[in-house]
Amino acid sequence: MEKNISIKALSFDALLVEFEQRIAPEILWQVLALERLIQQHLPKGIRETLPAYASLAVFYEPSFWAFAKLKSAVLDLLPLLPKTASHLPSGRRQAKGEKQMKVKSWEVPVCYGGSLGPDLRQMAEERGVSEERLVEWHSDRPYSVYMLGFMPGFVYLGEPDERLHQPRRSKPRARVAAGSVAIGGRQTGIYALAGPAGWNIIGRTPVELFQLREENPSPFRPGDVLRFVPISKREFEAQQALWQAGRHPLQKQWYD
Known about the structure:
The protein is 22% helix and 30% strand. Strand 1 and strand 2 (14-18) form a beta hairpin. The protein has two domains: 6-91, 2-Layer Sandwich (Gyrase A, domain 2); 103-255, Cyclophilin (Beta Barrel). The protein is of the alpha+beta class. It has five helices and 14 strands. The longest helix is centred in the N-terminal third of the chain and has 17 residues, at 25-41.
């Protein structure tokens, strides 16, 4: 078996492939490369694949696959995985025999601070810098989408500037608004729906990130690249009105 990769039964109809347990873009790309290889080489009897930070769950038809047989088939694919990769599309290396995978890059508008980002001021004061500087630190880089969880549509993103690392709140909020952009520990993320939150809220996007009536309720998937674009409160209100009227598309680009 490849170093730092293990395969175990998850349930009677699923197995779990676990990679080295750390949050890193090269691990994410290995997870996604294996998902693609399974989809291309083992399409029959596979119901669904679910990638996460450092693991891939594979759900299968027990009438077609026995666990031991599928485990062996997945093991045969591991030597095809790329050895290195980058979190940016231009640096991604294909697995051997893997078809080219296009990567979506999104621009997500965010209004930072004030009532929409109530923790931004305190974070700035703790660091002895302006709120504007924190916004620059947060919006000056692309972020990989690592996974969607713990509530519907919640977007777990890659690591922000280390100067933004912030422990989770000691007292979680009972409810934050949908679209809240937050920092928790060494990660940043977006609450797609309203709900309880223990992360530090620094802004909010007017984008509706979870729409049940769509075939894919969330526009994002692991491996996508996301950039935050700062906007004013007036722009936020205008874009929010357009989203509520169904007339404001989320900006995206495709990369090979």
